[in-house]
């Protein structure tokens, strides 16, 4: 009975998974021979578990083959060009697709092998000798439920493993299709990437050229700004100096105008007589003539009046001032210092001369006092009458008056 169950289980497993080879037929014939001999000793039956590992598979050989294959693939990748190499995502997608293709090929081959084995088994089952041996074994064998349960359990586990593999294969297929749908190369040809790089390089060069031009213009503008600033500062300082000189000239002219106005008033009110006026005019004419000779020269003198000489001197002064504006400031400062030094020297000499003259006058007066007769004072000395003291009026400040008015208004009208 156990052999019948084992044959049924092996038949089912052959139909579903196609994993047993034709060696089972030989094992079955050997078992029938043993049954005919009626050996009482129980021999361990290796065909009870139909799923066993074949002895002709060498795992070490497979490992070496896989290692050599990976080494050869690496060497080939080193020799490839840049555009022929693959990225990680493309490699994964390629692996998925290749794996799917291999699995499909394996499934096809396994299906074909299972069909052929099923046909062979069906033909073998139809054989009369096999039928007789199987019927004899059914009579002699005892039921073994434990063995049947174990076989069913193994079948279930194998079926579960196969279902899990199929689900994993389906999941990988879905992932591969999804990745193939999502991943789309932006550049289809390497020339497109080179064109983009050339465009970016041209843009970069144009930007660099623009920045250099802007820097040059900025330097030129900064240079011109500095020059204009220096020139404007120089002009401002020059204008300030001109303003100071003009203010000094204005003050001098105002002083001279005041003196002339005073003299005109004196002449107008008749304080001076005709002879004195003539003397003053003659002295003025002499002074103007002296200035005219110093400024213009003697060759142009031809009985000119005082007013005419003054106008000529004024024109000459204007020309000199215009020429003075063109002269550098350093030379003007040097000339001013020299003139200031001469003026101080002349003032010192005049002051010393005046002091000497005053000293001589003092000595003369002292000598005259010493030689004069002594007059004795008699009586009381006459003095002027003193003025009476001025009366001081106490003035109240306006703020206090305003405060008092405010207080009265607040007191009476609130």
From TrEMBL:
- Write out the GO cellular component annotations: ciliary basal body
Keyword Coiled coil present in the record's keywords: the answer is: yes
Sorted keywords for this record are: Cell projection, Cilium, Coiled coil, Flagellum
Which parts of the sequence are annotated with region: Disordered? 338-362
Q: Record keywords: Iron-sulfur included?
A: no
Q: Which residues form a coiled coil?
A: 162-217
Q: What is this protein called?
A: Cilia and flagella associated protein 100
